[in-house]
Amino acid sequence: MSTTNKMPPGIPYIIGNEAAERYSYYGMRSILVIFMTKYLMDRSGALDTMTPEEAKGWYHLFGTATYFLPLIGALVSDIFWGKYRTIITLSLVYCLGHLTLALDETRLGLSIGLTLIAIGAGGIKPCVSAHVGDQFDESNKGLLERVFGYFYFSINFGAFASIFLTPILLEKYGPSVAFGIPGILMFIATIFFWAGRNKFIAVPAAGWKKYRQEVLSKEGLKSVATLAVLYFFIAGFWSLFEQQGSSWVLQADQMDRLVDLRFGPFQYGWLQFELLASQISAVNPVLIMIMIPLFSFVIYPLWNRVWKVTPLRKIGVGLALAAFSFVIVALAQEQMDQGHTVSILWQFAAYVILTAAEVMVSITSLEYSYTQAPNAAKSFIMTFYLLSVSLGNSIAAAVNFLIQGTDGTSAFSGASYFWFFVVLTFVFTIGFVIFAIKYKEKSFIQPARAN
Questions:
Q1: Can you tell me the distance from the alpha carbon of 381 to that of 373, in angstroms, rounded to the nearest whole number?
Q2: Looking at the domain assignment, is residue 443 inside a domain?
Q3: Residue 120 lies in a domain
Q4: Cβ atoms within 10 Å, residue 45
Q5: DSSP labels for 305-354?
Q6: 71: number of Cβ within 10 Å
Q7: Residue 449: inside a domain, yes or no?
Q8: Taking each helix axis from N to C terminus, what angle separates 175-195 and 83-103, rounded to the nearest 10 degrees?
């Protein structure tokens, strides 16, 4: 069988769509906690803001829904509509959610808008990543790892731009503009994906009969059950990672956010600036874009000389690193609890470690989910990667709601909140390592297509 190094023609449309869609999602999400605690209105136009714990709880409930609804989107895609039709249809629902947030700044508008976005964003998530894999077969599967790296790079390119710009729009022009522009980008993403309709390899829906034969077979059920357990442990990573948009933003709001890059002859005024609290997480996608090639071409090859690099070993090391990132923010919070002024550089250091963990856990899980899935159920199995994010958010949401006292106090205040998640993630890491040692891999790739 011949092989090729030529990229499938539909890949640029998928990558472009993903960059614009991720701009819309991360831009909206970056300002949610600040919006809920400082800008939320009632019907009369008066402020009706939430407490920090309440805002964090609702933020993570939204994340839980967004990463749980892929289960529904995947079933619709794999059995009935196929990936392309599912993505186009639910993208329009997604756009309506952004429009609602832009027009209504009350709790009702927030609830309706976030519900529509969760349905749209959640429903298309497993379909888009599985659609990437569908562009490949046995003849060009060697390009799959590289393309998932490009795919993840586009996610973070869009995320960086939106996380940096959207908080500025919120501060200068208010919620309507700040939520409206991500909505426009989502509409552009939908148009861009539609433009590639004749370039894609569109694998049709399997239908219930074939779906049942592959997924509900002994081999299919074994694959589903095993991945479900693996991703249960990965949820520990997401319970930490998703807090860069909640607890880390609230911590940054209390830090010294002045950044001074002046040194030696470089004493220009523009090299000294103060970041907004909700802009800090923009460092994550920047680091991702640096670390993807760094890990691919330097770290993994060097690591492989000492200890064979496997997907499960990458994930295990990444889980441990995520816990260490929270050690840094916990130590910073301890200084703040003693009344000291703490520089935002503490969070920058934590972001470096958390981003390295993300490269090893998230990108690896994305590719791994596709290769371990039976061919008729690619979207469905991709949901286990996403459901681990949902479970991680539900853990964070539950903790934030449960620690609130009736008198407004918190059972885990200050640094103890971060230390709790450090311990929790180490427990998940140990569980993952024990299970991964016994896991037997089996790859499923689409067969070569006739030219």
A1: 6
A2: no
A3: yes
A4: 9
A5: HHS---HHHHHHHHHHHHHHHHHHHHHHHHHHHTT---BTHHHHHHHHHH
A6: 19
A7: no
A8: 160
pLDDT at 377 over 70: no
Nearest Cα residue to 95 out of 197, 16, 25: 25
Alpha-helical (H) ranges within 174-246 are 175-195, 207-215, 218-241
Query: What CATH number is associated with residue 260?
Result: 1.20.1250.20
Within a domain: 444: no
Strand partners, 274: 258
Lowest-confidence pick of 146-155, 170-179, 280-289, 430-439: 146-155
Residue 159 has pLDDT above 80, yes or no: yes
Q: What span, in angstroms and rounded, lies between the C-alpha atoms of 395 and 425?
A: 11
310-368: pLDDT as tens digits: 889 999 999 999 999 999 999 999 999 989 999 999 999 999 999 999 999 988 887 77
287-319 in b/e burial notation, b at 16+ Cβ within 10 A? bbbebbeebeeeeeeeeeeeeebebbbbbbbbb
Q: For residue range 261-272, what is the model confidence (pLDDT) as tens digits?
A: 888 888 888 888
Q: Give phi and psi for 147, each to the nearest 5.
A: -70, -40
How much is the pLDDT for 16? 85
Which ranges of 31-174 would DSSP assign to H, the alpha helix?
Answer: 32-38, 52-68, 70-75, 83-103, 107-134, 144-173
Tell me if 285 sits within 8 A of 153, measured CB to CB: no
**How many Cβ atoms from other residues are within 10 Å of residue 271's Cβ?**
12
**Dihedral, CA of residue 420, residue 424, residue 429 and residue 431, to nearest 10:** 160
Tokens at residue 266, please? 């470089």
Q: Please report how many Cα atoms fall inside a 13 Å half-sphere around the Cα of residue 437, on the Cβ side.
A: 5
Contact 239, 395 (CB under 8 A): yes
How many domains is the chain partitioned into structurally?
1
Distances (CA, A) of 316 to 133, 305, 351, 389: 24, 18, 18, 16
Is the pLDDT score of 244 beyond 70? Answer: yes
Split at pLDDT 50, 70, 90, the class of 221 is confident
The reported pTM is 0.80
Domain that holds residue 43: 11-201+209-266+277-438
